[in-house]
Amino acid sequence: MPLAVLLIVAACLVACDKAEQLQPQKVTYASDVEPIMQKHCAECHMAGKKGAEASGFLMDSYESVMKGTRFGPVIDPGSAISSSLYILVAGKADLTINMPHGKDPLSTEEIETIRVWIEKGAVEN
Ligand code: HEC
Predict the structure, then answer these.
(1) Does the CB atom of residue 51 touch ligand 1 within 6 A?
(2) Candidate from 55, 64, 69 with most ligand 1 atoms within 8 A of CB, to mutate
(3) I want to staple 80 with a disulfide (CB 3.0 to 4.6 A). Which of 40, 47, 118, 125 is the partner?
């Protein structure tokens, strides 16, 4: 039954095309994560600011973010739950040390963006 086969193939092509469009976009530092950091973290984690001074954690570039604090990295590419940056912004640590300090927490979407970004390898672009 060539016509039936053809219809099935056509239906699959349409469905497969749709599935591809629904795939979540790639999450990168430059396009997704940096705007969140700028909005919620930069005021304390730029050179000379108190967060940067206290921890050595600068958030002025991808390289600085990956370098972490003066004690080492805060991001473990591929594993959000072993990344202290994620633990702090997701509110999974003691509330007195959550980030951002003394300010409104990140939205659920922003936290999820950071989680997915780290899980997918914390890529720059
Ligand atoms: C109001 C100031 C302030 C803001 C805003 C802020 N931080 Fe911090 N951050 C600090 C201070 C101060 C420290 C030093 C350690 C401490 O006091 O807990 C710190 C330390 C850190 C550390 C290191 C913790 C460690 O392991 O020692 C990380 C990671 C961090 N901040 C991430 C963030 C992220 C991500 C954001 C934005 C979502 C953010 N911070 C926003 C003040 C701030």
Answers:
(1) yes
(2) 55
(3) 118
CA-nearest residue for atom 19, ligand 1, is 51
CB 110 within 8 A of CB 90: no
> Which pair of tokens denotes residue 108?
């659920």
Q: How far apart are CA 119 and CA 79, in angstroms?
A: 5
Q: Is 69 near ligand 1, meaning CB less than 6 Å away?
A: yes
Measure CA 83 to chain center. 11
Q: What is the pLDDT of residues 64-89, one digit of tens each?
A: 999 999 999 999 999 999 999 999 99
Residues of the chain with pLDDT under 70: 1, 3, 5-24
CA–centroid distance, residue 51 to ligand 1 (Å): 5
Mean of pLDDT over the chain: 89
Q: How far is CA 50 from CA 42, 46, 64, 84, 105, in A?
A: 11, 8, 16, 19, 18
